[in-house]
Structure formats: C-alpha cells, structure tokens
Design a protein that fits this description.
It contains eight helices and eight strands. It is elongated. It is of the alpha+beta class. Helix 1 crosses helix 6. A hairpin with a 5-residue loop joins strand 6 and strand 7. Helices cover about 40% and strands about 25% of the residues. The two termini are about 30 Å apart. An eight-stranded antiparallel barrel has the order 1-3-2-8-5-7-6-4.
Length: about 280
C-alpha cells in the first residue's frame, strides 16, 4: 500500500503548536470534545463464543443504556482487520467535556438499574456481556481537534476505519501561525471534498501512555477505497499546488514537526452497535 507521508504529516502538524485562540475556537465547535478509546481483547477461552450473539448482547446494552445516556455524544465498536493482534477490538466513547467522562460512567450504572431492576437479572446480563472479553485492556483519552469531517448522520452500514498514529518532534523555530495556515490548506486540499473519505477525525493525546501521540481516523466504504485514497494523494497535491518547488517547500516546513515514526492499523466500524 502506497502512502504519502507529507500528507499525513500535514494533517497532524497543527496539534503541536495550538494557540489559545485556536483552542477557544475548538471549544465553540459542535461535536465531541473528548474521546476515550478502550482497547479490549476477546476471551479466547470462551467456549460459547458466537459473533451474532455478541452483537445482540451489545445491541441490547446500546438500546437500554448507551443511547439513553445524555452525557455520551457517541459510542462505537471497531473490530480487527489489519492490526498486530487479531484478538483486539476497540470501544470508543465521545463526550462534550472532560467532566462528562465521569458523569457518563455514573449514569451508565443508573441506567443499568433502570433497564434491569432485578439485581439477579442485571448481574446475569452483565456477566453474559463480560464473558466475551478478557480482563486485559488499555485506555487512552484524546482531545478531538478542528478540521473534522463528520461521517454522514444517516450512515447505516459498516465501514473501514484506517487509523494512523504519528509522533511529534519539537522544533525551536515552529510557530502557531505557520502550522495553522498549513493545516487549513491541507484539510481543504486532501480531505474536505475528497469523496472517498466519508469521515475524518484528528485527535491529540490528552491522557495515556504517550504524550507525543496524535491519532487520526479515516472512514471509508471499503479497503479498495482506502487504496484509491492513497493513490490519489499526489494528484491532489499537484492540483492544489501546481508548482513543484512550492510543494517541496511546504513538505520541508511540515517535516520538521515530526519524528518520522508512525503506525498504521485498519479496523471495521460496526454501524449497528453505534450511537
């Protein structure tokens, strides 16, 4: 699979040098402000494992609890497609504020009691739900950034989610103005009107294991469209900046902000289990 590192470097670059005014602008935008990503693992010793049953159990919890939780702006499951560990799945929840993360957790407990008033029935359901997962998991919290392209609200089909993680360098000559201008231009050129990219969500580290991390999620209809997206990046760059010297200069400006190390993964977004 061919990649264009300059493109992804550009998409990530504004994270490092966010000014106060930019952060305030983010507070004013509609949509999620924080995202928790819990990487879980299937219980490989569960003899009664059945994917359809798992989906029905999680759908019941979604309808009775998650969709009724006013502190949750959204939630979704992502299953392994191309990752180092085929046992993993990622559960994502999005919130309007940092405070809502704790409020949503407490509200889950209240709604569980409303959904299953009988304690034994409630515990039996939760036990059935948890049987699908191992005890091993990890958690990260990200801050959702501007330059978001929302997945269409009426989408009802599973999608491919390409996830790219990059890491910051810290150049002394970096500036907010430079990054802000470059990021706005690159979003317009590569993402905003790209018909292959159905949704795009850039997120920066807020809490977790690596403070240099930035994570981007690209939503596409298929693996074939992901390949087409990569293949078309050079043409989009030439269309936006026809002069080769200009493209080269922009690449050099952006390259100084990153270590050059990145990681890639592909997941399957399950539409039926999403709020």
């Amino acid at each position: 699979m061919k990649t264009t590192n300059r493109f992804f470097t550009a998409l990530a670059a504004m994270l490092l040098f966010f000014s106060t005014s930019t952060m305030l602008a983010q507070e004013e935008q509609k949509g999620p402000q924080y995202m928790t990503a819990t990487t879980m693992h299937w219980n490989m010793d569960y003899e009664d494992f059945d994917m359809d049953t798992w989906k029905s159990v999680e759908k019941e919890y979604l309808d009775k609890v998650t969709k009724k939780n006013e502190y949750l702006l959204g939630s979704s499951f992502y299953l392994h497609q191309m990752t180092p560990d085929n046992t993993e799945l990622v559960y994502v929840r999005v919130y309007g504020s940092w405070e809502d993360i704790e409020k949503a957790s407490m509200r889950d407990g209240e709604l569980e009691k409303e959904a299953w008033p009988d304690k034994d029935a409630r515990e039996a359901f939760l036990k059935k739900q948890q049987a699908y997962y191992s005890h091993d998991h990890s958690d990260e919290i990200y801050y959702t950034l501007p330059w978001v392209k929302q997945v269409p609200a009426d989408n009802n089909k599973d999608m491919i989610c390409y996830v790219r993680k990059t890491h910051f360098a810290y150049p002394e000559d970096g500036s907010n103005d430079e990054i802000g201008k470059l990021m706005s231009e690159n979003f317009d050129a590569y993402v905003k009107n790209n018909p292959l990219i159905k949704g795009y969500y850039p997120n920066r580290h807020a809490w977790g294991s690596d403070g240099t991390e930035m994570m981007e999620g690209f939503f596409l209809d298929s693996m074939a469209d992901l390949e087409k997206m990569f293949d078309g990046l050079d043409d989009l760059a030439k269309k936006a900046w026809p002069d080769e010297a200009t493209r080269k200069a922009r690449g050099e400006k952006l390259g100084k902000y990153f270590t050059g190390v990145h990681g890639d993964a592909v997941y399957k977004y399950i539409a039926a289990l999403s709020k």
